[in-house]
Write a structure and sequence with these properties.
Layout: H1 15-19, E1 20-22, E2 38-39, E3 42-43, E4 45-47, E5 64-73, E6 76-84, E7 93-99, H2 116-126, E8 130-134, H3 146-160, H4 162-165, E9 167-177, H5 179-190, E10 210-214, H6 229-239, H7 248-252, E11 266-271, H8 279-291, E12 296-301, H9 319-333
Parallel strand pairs: 1-4, 7-8, 7-9, 9-10, 10-11, 11-12
Antiparallel strand pairs: 2-3, 5-6, 6-8
Helix pairs in contact: 2-9, 3-5
Length: about 325
């Protein structure tokens, strides 16, 4: 981890000068988002300008939906909603796993209209691929690390059933928001750790080839959590320890702990006005990934709070534009 990244905030007067390259308004294009490289000691943050509306797409999840039981975790049968092109894929295709948010204590596998994940599902299935949104055990009844164990099991399930699901097991990506972003990042960086890679479908890999992390906690030991009492409480319910403490449990549950050269490509999305997961968390994760020589992009959304809800203005880029960036990132990195 890079200590200098701790405490860096979008409200720091030098934030944009030291870590951002601004694109002019109207110059927005998903192709302009690129892997960051180190610049004057911090990660280069790509910030997009405002552009005309990009269209809303269909009103609901695309393709054909079915519900499948993928694993039994913590004594509970866990299911996923799987969407595929109408009529099914004609050949094995990449798959994207979605992990819902909700502070590890709420949520399910239903996609929330108007969110990035909702729109990415449309883009992925329209591209002819498979999209699977998973349920997982919730705290405080089920505590860490059972949530990550469920996510690794879901990936192994897709590979174990690749023939019947027409999934290309060599190309699996993951996307998640908030607590789901934390789990997505952990899956990308530590999914093969024996503490997490347990359960059914042994012998199948839980590795993913691309990660979209939307405003997920990255370093649960950071003192920056003093700014987020809500996350401190949720952390206590999930990990038994409030975020911000130097606890072995929180160290082991922090994505930054597992950063290493050879990680899959990351796209990290962050609201600049987020009061639940401070922007410094995403900056630190991307900074560490780039320092390790990995491909990582930070997409900072101005005037956006947690969940990219408007805060002090119109979120820029829009949720629809962020979803387009995320979809193109997945298509490119998974072999589209």
């Amino acid at each position: 981890m890079r200590p200098a990244a701790k405490g860096l905030s979008a409200h720091d007067p030098g934030y944009a000068r030291r870590s951002a390259r601004l694109l002019p308004a109207g110059a927005w294009d998903a192709g302009a988002v690129r892997s960051v490289r180190r610049l004057t000691g911090v990660a280069l943050v790509v910030v997009l300008g405002t552009a005309a509306g990009c269209g809303g797409g269909p009103p609901g999840p695309a393709g054909t939906e079915r519900t499948l039981t993928y694993c039994h975790v913590g004594g509970v049968s866990e299911t996923m909603r799987l969407w595929e092109p109408s009529g099914g894929p004609g050949r094995p295709v990449p798959a994207v796993v979605d992990i819902h948010g909700g502070g590890w204590v709420l949520g399910d596998d239903r996609l929330e209209p108007g969110t990035v994940d909702w729109a990415v599902e449309q883009g992925v299935v329209d591209h002819g691929w498979v999209f699977a949104s998973i349920d997982y055990p919730l705290a405080p009844v089920h505590r860490w690390p059972v949530q990550l164990q469920a996510a690794t099991c879901a990936v192994r399930y897709l590979r174990a059933e690749a023939a019947s699901l027409r999934v290309d097991g060599a190309h699996v990506g993951v996307i998640g928001a908030s607590a789901g972003g934390h789990l997505a990042a952990m899956l990308g960086l530590a999914g093969s750790d024996p503490a997490f890679d347990t359960g059914e479908h042994a012998g199948q890999s839980s590795a993913v080839q691309a990660v979209v992390d939307e405003f997920g906690p990255a370093d649960l030991t950071s003192p920056v959590w003093a700014q987020s009492p809500a996350l401190v409480q949720l952390s206590a319910e999930e990990f038994g320890v409030g975020a911000g403490q130097r606890s072995p449990v929180l160290v082991a549950a922090s994505p930054v702990t597992y950063v290493h050269h050879g990680a899959p490509p990351f796209l990290v999305v962050q609201g600049a006005e987020d009061r639940i997961v401070p922007p410094a968390q995403s900056v630190e994760l991307v900074d560490d990934l780039v320092a390790a020589g990995d491909s990582a992009t930070l997409l900072m959304v101005h005037h956006a709070g947690h969940g990219l809800v408007p805060s002090g203005g119109t979120p820029t880029p829009s949720v629809d534009q962020v979803a387009q960036v995320a979809t193109r990132f997945l298509v490119r990195t998974l072999g589209g």
